[in-house]
Amino acid sequence: MLPIRAAARRTALAAFSLGLAFVAGPALAQPKPTVVVMGEDADEDSVPRGNRIFQRVIAELSETMNLRGYNVYDETAVAMGFTQPNRVRRRDAELIEVARAVSSPPLDVVAVFQIYASATKSAYSDIVRPEVRIPGRLLNVRTGQSLGSFEVAGVQLPPLPQGCDRECLLERVGAEAKVITGDVAAALTAKLDGVVAPRRGADPGAASVPGAVAAPVAGGPTGEACGGLPTAYVVRLNGFSAQEVQAAEEYMAAFRCYEHHRPVRSGASAAEYWYETRSDSARLGRNLRLMLEHMSAPGQVQFSGNTFVLSRVATR
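The structure corresponding to this sequence follows.
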C-alpha cells in the first residue's frame, strides 16, 4: 500500500509542477528589486545628512542605479508618514528598521553609504588638497544579508585654489565627491546585477523530487531562467497533520525558482521553515494556495513582511 501512495504522490507532484509551469509561465521574468539609497552619518567625522555634499552623493547614487534599470525610491517620500524627516546622525540599525517598515512599496535592497571629507595642507608648502572617501554597501532588507560592498579611497584630488573659503570648499569637495560616487555606484550596481542575474539550467524543484517530471520551460528548451533577488521567507504551517506537513514540504521543494529550505521548528501540529527562493512574494503566495488546492487541504494563506502563515481549516 505504501509504494502505491508514494507513486501517487510523485504523480501528483509531477502534475503540480506541470500546472505551475503553465500558470506562472507568462510571469516568468522577475522584476528588478526595489532599492532605497540611505546615508549612514552616525560617525561624527562623516558628512551629515542635509549637507550639500551629502545631497550630491545620494543624487548620483540614485541616478546611476535608476539608469541601470532598478526601481529607486526616495527615502523621505516613502517614509515621511511614520518617521521624522531630515533626522541626522543615524546608525545603520535605524536605517534598516526604517527600510523594513516601508510597505508601500515593499523595499528589497538598501544601499548604505558614508562620506568622509577633509582638506590637508602640505607639510612643505601652502598647497591644500581635499580628501574624500566614500564606502558603500548593499543589504537585503528582509534578511539582512550582505549583497556586496565597495569603497573608493586614496584618489589624488586637485589642490584647492588660494583663498578658498567655506563656500568654495563645499563646492569643490562636492564636485569631487560626485565623481567618486559615480565609481562607487557603478561597482555596487555591477554587484547587484550579479546577484539578480538569471540562473539557467534544469528546473531545481523538479530535480529535487524523486520521480517528478521536469516542468516545461517558458523561456526555451535549454532550461529555465530564474532571475530576481534571492529572498528568504518564513513559512509556517499550523494545524496540519504530520503526513500533510511532509507532503507540503515536498510540494514547496518543487516550486519554480526554489533554492533551499531549512526546518526551523517542528511539532505535532505546527512546522516552520526558512525558505529561500528567487520567486517574488506574489508568485510564492499563489503557489502556496495552489498547493493547498492540490492537497485537498482546506486552509488559508496569510502574508506579512517576509512571513507566510498557512492555517488548516478544520471541517467535519
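The domain at 34-196 is CATH 3.40.50 (Rossmann fold).
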